[in-house]
Amino acid sequence: METNKFKFNFYRFTGTQDNRTTEITRDISTADGMRGLVDMKADQIKLATQRATDWASSNHLTINPKPPFPSTKYPGKAWLEFRFTGLAL
């Protein structure tokens, strides 16, 4: 049986509004989201998205998935990105 593992990295936005970029962070408390690289196959994208959603839910987080986009550096792979969202009361 094949085990599908997916690796996501936390990132945060840095820089000014006009010159914004991202950097990887290990600390979830400073992260603005997470992204990972998966095979560009519908079933892999769906499974990775479901695992990310399940992980977020189990950690009492809400994530907003962005549409997958193809990697120019890694042919046949797609980037999945999820932004952390908050709740205002």
Topology, pairings included?
Layout: E1 8-14, E2 21-25, E3 33-39, H1 42-58, E4 62-65, E5 69-70, E6 77-85
Antiparallel strand pairs: 1-2, 1-3, 3-6, 4-6, 5-6
Account of the protein in words:
This protein has 89 residues and is an alpha+beta fold. It has one helix at residues 42-58; strands spanning 8-14, 21-25, 33-39, 62-65, 69-70, 77-85. Strands 1, 2, 3, 4, 5 and 6 form a six-stranded antiparallel β-sheet that branches. A hairpin with a 6-residue loop joins strand 5 and strand 6. The chain starts with 7 loop residues before the first strand and ends with a strand.
Offer a concise description of the structure.
With 89 residues, the chain is α+β, with helices and mostly antiparallel strands. The protein has one helix at residues 42-58; strands at 8-14, 21-25, 33-39, 62-65, 69-70, 77-85.
What is the H/E string? Answer: EEEHEEE
Strand count: 6
Strand content: 35-45%
Mean pLDDT over the full residue set: 90
Dominant shape: globular
Poorly predicted regions: none
Helix coverage percent: 10-25%
Class computed from helices, strands and strand pairing = alpha+beta
Report, as a whole number of angstroms, the end-to-end distance.
Answer: 45 Å
Question: So what's the oligomer here?
Answer: single chain
Helical run tally:
1
**What is the alpha-carbon Rg in Å?**
14 Å
Biggest pleated sheet: 6 strands, antiparallel
